[in-house]
Structure prediction request, 334 residues.
Amino acid sequence: MTAPYAHIGIVGGGAWGTALALTARRAGRQVTLWALEPEVVDDINGARRNTRYLPGHPIEPGITATRALADLAACDVVLLVTPAQVSRALAQQLAPLVAATVPIVVCAKGIEAATGNLIPSAVAEALPDRSVSMLSGPTFAEEVARGLPTAVTLASPDRTLGEALAHALRTPTFRPYWTDDVTGVALGGAIKNVLAIACGVVEGRKLGDNARAALLTRGFAEMARLGVAMGARLETLAGLAGLGDLTLTCNGPLSRNRSLGAAIGQGITAADFLAGKPSIAEGFHTAPIVQSLATRYQVDMPICAAVAALLHDGADVDATIRALLARPLKGEGE
Prediction:
Protein backbone atom coordinates (compact mmCIF):
# COMPACT_ATOMS: atom_id res chain seq x y z
CA MET A 1 0.00 0.00 0.00
CA THR A 2 1.40 3.42 -0.95
CA ALA A 3 0.69 6.15 1.59
CA PRO A 4 -0.42 9.48 0.09
CA TYR A 5 1.08 11.65 2.82
CA ALA A 6 4.18 13.10 1.17
CA HIS A 7 4.45 16.22 3.35
CA ILE A 8 4.19 15.86 7.12
CA GLY A 9 3.82 18.78 9.49
CA ILE A 10 4.96 18.52 13.09
CA VAL A 11 3.86 20.95 15.80
CA GLY A 12 6.46 20.86 18.55
CA GLY A 13 10.24 21.15 18.40
CA GLY A 14 11.05 19.21 21.56
CA ALA A 15 12.86 15.89 21.70
CA TRP A 16 9.86 13.80 20.67
CA GLY A 17 8.80 16.15 17.89
CA THR A 18 12.34 16.19 16.52
CA ALA A 19 12.62 12.39 16.73
CA LEU A 20 9.35 12.04 14.82
CA ALA A 21 10.61 14.50 12.23
CA LEU A 22 13.70 12.32 11.73
CA THR A 23 11.47 9.25 11.48
CA ALA A 24 9.16 10.83 8.92
CA ARG A 25 12.15 11.90 6.86
CA ARG A 26 13.55 8.36 6.95
CA ALA A 27 10.15 7.24 5.68
CA GLY A 28 10.72 9.44 2.65
CA ARG A 29 8.47 12.34 3.65
CA GLN A 30 9.11 16.05 3.41
CA VAL A 31 8.83 17.55 6.90
CA THR A 32 7.94 20.99 8.18
CA LEU A 33 8.50 21.32 11.92
CA TRP A 34 7.04 24.18 13.95
CA ALA A 35 8.92 25.14 17.12
CA LEU A 36 8.12 27.83 19.66
CA GLU A 37 11.70 28.88 20.39
CA PRO A 38 13.52 30.99 17.76
CA GLU A 39 16.86 29.46 18.75
CA VAL A 40 15.55 25.95 18.03
CA VAL A 41 14.32 26.99 14.59
CA ASP A 42 17.62 28.71 13.80
CA ASP A 43 19.62 25.74 15.09
CA ILE A 44 17.71 23.25 12.92
CA ASN A 45 17.77 25.36 9.77
CA GLY A 46 21.33 26.60 10.21
CA ALA A 47 23.49 24.10 12.07
CA ARG A 48 21.14 21.15 11.24
CA ARG A 49 20.77 20.10 14.88
CA ASN A 50 18.51 20.61 17.90
CA THR A 51 21.03 21.32 20.61
CA ARG A 52 18.48 22.28 23.25
CA TYR A 53 16.22 19.22 23.14
CA LEU A 54 17.92 16.43 21.18
CA PRO A 55 21.67 17.06 20.95
CA GLY A 56 23.93 14.73 19.02
CA HIS A 57 21.53 13.92 16.19
CA PRO A 58 22.13 15.59 12.80
CA ILE A 59 19.00 17.00 11.16
CA GLU A 60 19.15 15.97 7.54
CA PRO A 61 17.92 18.08 4.60
CA GLY A 62 14.24 17.63 3.89
CA ILE A 63 13.32 18.83 7.39
CA THR A 64 12.57 22.55 7.61
CA ALA A 65 11.83 24.36 10.88
CA THR A 66 9.52 27.35 11.20
CA ARG A 67 7.90 29.59 13.81
CA ALA A 68 4.87 30.26 11.58
CA LEU A 69 2.02 27.80 12.02
CA ALA A 70 0.71 28.99 8.65
CA ASP A 71 3.64 27.17 7.02
CA LEU A 72 1.88 23.90 7.91
CA ALA A 73 -1.01 24.73 5.59
CA ALA A 74 0.68 22.87 2.75
CA CYS A 75 1.10 19.65 4.77
CA ASP A 76 -0.87 16.48 4.08
CA VAL A 77 -1.02 15.43 7.75
CA VAL A 78 -0.13 17.23 10.99
CA LEU A 79 1.38 15.58 14.07
CA LEU A 80 0.61 17.49 17.26
CA VAL A 81 3.67 16.85 19.44
CA THR A 82 3.17 19.43 22.18
CA PRO A 83 2.82 19.27 25.96
CA ALA A 84 -0.62 17.88 26.78
CA GLN A 85 -1.88 21.00 28.54
CA VAL A 86 -1.32 23.29 25.53
CA SER A 87 -2.58 20.89 22.87
CA ARG A 88 -6.08 22.39 22.70
CA ALA A 89 -4.75 25.96 22.38
CA LEU A 90 -2.41 25.05 19.53
CA ALA A 91 -5.15 23.07 17.81
CA GLN A 92 -7.37 26.16 17.97
CA GLN A 93 -4.61 28.16 16.27
CA LEU A 94 -4.32 25.51 13.57
CA ALA A 95 -8.07 25.48 12.85
CA PRO A 96 -8.15 28.37 10.34
CA LEU A 97 -4.80 27.41 8.80
CA VAL A 98 -5.10 23.72 7.94
CA ALA A 99 -7.70 22.27 5.60
CA ALA A 100 -10.46 20.17 7.15
CA THR A 101 -9.31 17.22 5.05
CA VAL A 102 -5.88 17.13 6.72
CA PRO A 103 -5.67 14.41 9.42
CA ILE A 104 -4.43 15.48 12.85
CA VAL A 105 -2.39 12.97 14.86
CA VAL A 106 -2.04 13.65 18.60
CA CYS A 107 1.34 12.56 19.99
CA ALA A 108 0.98 14.03 23.49
CA LYS A 109 0.49 11.71 26.47
CA GLY A 110 -1.71 13.23 29.14
CA ILE A 111 -5.18 14.37 30.18
CA GLU A 112 -6.44 17.94 29.95
CA ALA A 113 -6.45 19.39 33.45
CA ALA A 114 -9.19 21.96 32.88
CA THR A 115 -11.77 19.47 31.55
CA GLY A 116 -10.60 15.94 32.34
CA ASN A 117 -10.74 15.20 28.61
CA LEU A 118 -8.31 12.85 26.95
CA ILE A 119 -6.11 14.88 24.62
CA PRO A 120 -7.62 13.56 21.34
CA SER A 121 -11.06 14.61 22.61
CA ALA A 122 -9.79 18.05 23.57
CA VAL A 123 -8.17 18.49 20.15
CA ALA A 124 -11.31 17.25 18.39
CA GLU A 125 -13.33 19.93 20.19
CA ALA A 126 -10.86 22.56 18.99
CA LEU A 127 -10.89 21.16 15.44
CA PRO A 128 -14.52 20.19 14.80
CA ASP A 129 -15.31 18.01 11.80
CA ARG A 130 -11.65 16.92 11.55
CA SER A 131 -10.16 13.45 11.75
CA VAL A 132 -8.17 13.21 15.00
CA SER A 133 -5.94 10.17 15.58
CA MET A 134 -3.46 9.27 18.32
CA LEU A 135 0.08 7.88 18.18
CA SER A 136 1.53 6.39 21.35
CA GLY A 137 3.61 3.53 22.66
CA PRO A 138 6.92 2.66 24.31
CA THR A 139 9.15 5.36 22.87
CA PHE A 140 12.18 7.17 24.18
CA ALA A 141 12.91 10.01 21.78
CA GLU A 142 16.66 9.42 22.01
CA GLU A 143 16.35 5.82 20.77
CA VAL A 144 13.87 6.71 18.01
CA ALA A 145 16.24 9.45 16.83
CA ARG A 146 19.06 6.89 16.66
CA GLY A 147 16.92 4.65 14.49
CA LEU A 148 16.74 1.85 17.04
CA PRO A 149 13.86 -0.65 16.64
CA THR A 150 10.59 0.78 17.93
CA ALA A 151 6.94 -0.28 17.73
CA VAL A 152 4.00 2.05 18.42
CA THR A 153 0.21 2.09 18.21
CA LEU A 154 -1.62 4.46 15.86
CA ALA A 155 -5.28 4.82 16.79
CA SER A 156 -7.87 6.25 14.43
CA PRO A 157 -11.67 5.95 14.40
CA ASP A 158 -11.29 5.24 10.66
CA ARG A 159 -9.37 2.00 10.13
CA THR A 160 -8.49 2.87 6.54
CA LEU A 161 -7.01 6.20 7.64
CA GLY A 162 -5.12 4.55 10.50
CA GLU A 163 -3.61 2.04 8.11
CA ALA A 164 -2.59 4.78 5.67
CA LEU A 165 -1.00 6.88 8.40
CA ALA A 166 0.91 3.85 9.70
CA HIS A 167 2.33 3.22 6.24
CA ALA A 168 3.28 6.90 5.91
CA LEU A 169 5.43 6.76 9.05
CA ARG A 170 6.82 3.26 8.75
CA THR A 171 10.56 2.79 8.37
CA PRO A 172 12.69 -0.36 8.63
CA THR A 173 13.04 0.31 12.37
CA PHE A 174 9.81 2.19 13.23
CA ARG A 175 6.75 -0.05 13.11
CA PRO A 176 3.24 1.36 13.78
CA TYR A 177 0.31 -0.95 14.52
CA TRP A 178 -3.17 0.47 14.01
CA THR A 179 -6.36 0.28 16.04
CA ASP A 180 -9.66 2.15 16.30
CA ASP A 181 -9.51 2.30 20.12
CA VAL A 182 -8.49 5.92 20.54
CA THR A 183 -9.64 5.99 24.17
CA GLY A 184 -7.48 3.02 25.14
CA VAL A 185 -4.37 4.39 23.44
CA ALA A 186 -4.79 7.88 24.91
CA LEU A 187 -5.58 6.65 28.42
CA GLY A 188 -2.72 4.14 28.52
CA GLY A 189 -0.21 6.80 27.52
CA ALA A 190 -1.47 9.15 30.22
CA ILE A 191 -1.74 6.79 33.20
CA LYS A 192 1.62 5.11 32.61
CA ASN A 193 3.33 8.41 33.42
CA VAL A 194 1.69 8.51 36.85
CA LEU A 195 2.68 4.91 37.55
CA ALA A 196 6.24 5.60 36.40
CA ILE A 197 6.51 8.25 39.09
CA ALA A 198 5.44 5.63 41.63
CA CYS A 199 8.10 3.24 40.34
CA GLY A 200 10.63 6.03 40.64
CA VAL A 201 9.70 6.50 44.29
CA VAL A 202 10.37 2.79 44.83
CA GLU A 203 13.78 3.25 43.25
CA GLY A 204 14.58 6.42 45.17
CA ARG A 205 13.59 4.78 48.46
CA LYS A 206 15.59 1.64 47.58
CA LEU A 207 12.62 -0.65 48.14
CA GLY A 208 13.90 -3.32 45.75
CA ASP A 209 12.94 -5.06 42.53
CA ASN A 210 10.17 -7.08 44.17
CA ALA A 211 8.37 -3.88 45.12
CA ARG A 212 8.81 -2.39 41.68
CA ALA A 213 7.42 -5.51 39.97
CA ALA A 214 4.45 -5.56 42.34
CA LEU A 215 3.77 -1.88 41.79
CA LEU A 216 3.99 -2.17 38.02
CA THR A 217 1.59 -5.11 38.00
CA ARG A 218 -0.94 -3.62 40.40
CA GLY A 219 -0.60 -0.29 38.62
CA PHE A 220 -1.55 -1.94 35.36
CA ALA A 221 -4.63 -3.37 37.11
CA GLU A 222 -5.61 0.22 38.00
CA MET A 223 -5.07 1.33 34.41
CA ALA A 224 -7.19 -1.53 33.12
CA ARG A 225 -10.04 -0.89 35.57
CA LEU A 226 -10.36 2.77 34.64
CA GLY A 227 -9.85 2.09 30.94
CA VAL A 228 -12.65 -0.48 30.76
CA ALA A 229 -14.93 1.83 32.75
CA MET A 230 -14.27 4.59 30.19
CA GLY A 231 -14.94 2.35 27.20
CA ALA A 232 -11.42 1.26 26.27
CA ARG A 233 -10.66 -2.30 25.25
CA LEU A 234 -8.55 -4.43 27.57
CA GLU A 235 -6.53 -5.74 24.61
CA THR A 236 -5.45 -2.17 23.81
CA LEU A 237 -4.37 -1.52 27.39
CA ALA A 238 -2.45 -4.82 27.36
CA GLY A 239 -0.70 -3.75 24.15
CA LEU A 240 2.02 -1.30 23.16
CA ALA A 241 0.23 1.88 24.21
CA GLY A 242 -0.63 0.53 27.66
CA LEU A 243 1.44 -2.26 29.18
CA GLY A 244 4.27 -1.78 26.67
CA ASP A 245 4.66 1.92 27.44
CA LEU A 246 4.21 1.27 31.16
CA THR A 247 7.01 -1.29 31.16
CA LEU A 248 9.40 1.04 29.36
CA THR A 249 8.64 4.12 31.44
CA CYS A 250 8.81 2.30 34.76
CA ASN A 251 12.10 0.58 33.98
CA GLY A 252 13.96 2.70 31.42
CA PRO A 253 16.70 5.07 32.59
CA LEU A 254 15.60 7.79 30.14
CA SER A 255 12.15 8.24 31.70
CA ARG A 256 11.51 11.77 32.96
CA ASN A 257 8.58 10.61 35.09
CA ARG A 258 10.56 7.82 36.72
CA SER A 259 13.36 10.30 37.43
CA LEU A 260 10.87 12.65 39.09
CA GLY A 261 9.64 9.81 41.30
CA ALA A 262 13.18 8.80 42.20
CA ALA A 263 13.90 12.37 43.29
CA ILE A 264 10.80 12.39 45.50
CA GLY A 265 11.87 9.06 46.97
CA GLN A 266 15.19 10.67 47.87
CA GLY A 267 13.49 13.56 49.64
CA ILE A 268 13.63 16.16 46.85
CA THR A 269 10.43 18.09 46.21
CA ALA A 270 8.76 17.96 42.81
CA ALA A 271 9.10 21.74 42.47
CA ASP A 272 12.83 21.63 43.09
CA PHE A 273 13.35 18.72 40.70
CA LEU A 274 11.34 20.29 37.87
CA ALA A 275 12.73 23.81 38.23
CA GLY A 276 14.65 24.93 35.17
CA LYS A 277 14.23 21.70 33.21
CA PRO A 278 13.32 22.22 29.53
CA SER A 279 11.37 18.95 29.31
CA ILE A 280 8.09 18.13 31.02
CA ALA A 281 7.19 15.18 33.25
CA GLU A 282 3.56 14.84 32.14
CA GLY A 283 2.69 12.60 35.10
CA PHE A 284 2.99 15.60 37.42
CA HIS A 285 -0.06 17.21 35.79
CA THR A 286 -1.86 13.97 35.07
CA ALA A 287 -1.91 12.42 38.58
CA PRO A 288 -4.66 14.56 40.14
CA ILE A 289 -6.77 14.32 36.98
CA VAL A 290 -6.57 10.52 37.06
CA GLN A 291 -7.65 10.65 40.68
CA SER A 292 -10.68 12.75 39.67
CA LEU A 293 -11.57 10.34 36.88
CA ALA A 294 -11.30 7.41 39.29
CA THR A 295 -13.81 9.13 41.56
CA ARG A 296 -16.12 9.94 38.67
CA TYR A 297 -16.11 6.37 37.37
CA GLN A 298 -16.07 4.81 40.86
CA VAL A 299 -12.82 2.93 40.23
CA ASP A 300 -10.34 2.09 42.98
CA MET A 301 -6.87 3.46 42.05
CA PRO A 302 -4.84 3.67 45.29
CA ILE A 303 -1.41 3.88 43.63
CA CYS A 304 -2.39 6.78 41.40
CA ALA A 305 -4.08 8.49 44.35
CA ALA A 306 -0.88 8.09 46.38
CA VAL A 307 1.19 9.68 43.61
CA ALA A 308 -1.20 12.63 43.44
CA ALA A 309 -0.91 13.08 47.20
CA LEU A 310 2.89 13.01 47.07
CA LEU A 311 3.06 15.51 44.22
CA HIS A 312 0.36 17.97 45.15
CA ASP A 313 -0.67 17.50 48.79
CA GLY A 314 2.69 17.29 50.53
CA ALA A 315 2.13 13.72 51.66
CA ASP A 316 4.99 12.01 53.50
CA VAL A 317 6.68 9.33 51.41
CA ASP A 318 7.11 6.71 54.14
CA ALA A 319 3.61 7.21 55.52
CA THR A 320 2.16 6.90 52.02
CA ILE A 321 4.01 3.64 51.41
CA ARG A 322 2.86 2.25 54.77
CA ALA A 323 -0.74 3.16 53.97
CA LEU A 324 -0.60 1.31 50.63
CA LEU A 325 0.85 -1.81 52.25
CA ALA A 326 -1.73 -1.69 55.04
CA ARG A 327 -4.74 -1.77 52.72
CA PRO A 328 -7.14 -4.69 53.36
CA LEU A 329 -6.25 -7.94 51.61
CA LYS A 330 -8.38 -8.90 48.62
CA GLY A 331 -8.52 -11.31 45.72
CA GLU A 332 -6.13 -10.47 42.90
CA GLY A 333 -8.94 -9.95 40.41
CA GLU A 334 -10.94 -7.62 42.68
Summary: The first helix runs from residue 15 to 26. The two ends are 45 Å apart (CA to CA). Strands lie at 7-11, 30-34, 63-66, 77-80, 104-106, 132-136, 150-155, 174-179. The domain at 7-180 is CATH 3.40.50.720 (Rossmann fold).
